[in-house]
Amino acid sequence: MPAEKRQHPRQSVQLPVAFQREGGPRIDGLSRDMSIGGMFVETPTPAPFNSTVQIFMTLPGLKQEVTVKATVRWTERDGMGVQFGLMGVRETHALTRLIAGVPPSGPISGSGGPVSGGPMSGGPKSGR
């Protein structure tokens, strides 16, 4: 693994996820660790370094699957580290609660604007 350059500390979170490159198949994986800025996705077929992927996951407290644009920042033979792009407020709140180990308190409602997942964030809001 490369030298630690993360802005946000990661927590061990095992969550079924999937990812997809533009025009490619949806590939199932499992999160190994996660922060508000990104995650490691365990998969035998990681996307190439610096590619853009859509990450699909179901976060506790949200009714629908969330889609987050992400960039592959590093790869290993058993997976890849991705940096999240923009997320809505509801998705950010649910992810923050998951990482903190706070049990879900029911569906999160309200309007959500974009929240940056990191310094390299960009792209459309997700999870709508």
Number of strands: 9
Spatial order of the strands forming the largest sheet: 2-3-4-7-6-5
Q: State the domain count.
A: 1
Gyration radius from CA atoms, angstroms: 14 Å
- Approximate shape: globular
Q: Tell me, rounded to a whole number, the average pLDDT.
A: 81
Please give the count of helices.
Answer: 1
The CATH topology is: Thrombin, subunit H
In the CATH classification, which architecture applies? Beta Barrel
The secondary-structure element order is EEEEEEEEHE
Helix content: under 10%
CATH level-four homologous superfamily name? predicted glycosyltransferase like domains
* Beta-strand share of residues: 35-45%
Distance between the termini: 33 Å
List low-confidence stretches.
107-128
Helix/strand class: mainly beta
Largest beta-sheet details:
6 strands, antiparallel, barrel
* Top CATH class: Mainly Beta
In short:
With 128 residues, this protein is mainly beta. It contains one helix and nine strands; from the N terminus they run ββββββββαβ.
Report on this model:
The protein is 9% helix and 38% strand. By secondary structure, the chain is mainly beta. The protein has a single domain, classed as Thrombin, subunit H (Beta Barrel), CATH 2.40.10.220. Strands 2-3-4-7-6-5 form a six-stranded antiparallel beta barrel. The radius of gyration is 14 Å and the shape is globular. The relative contact order is 0.21.
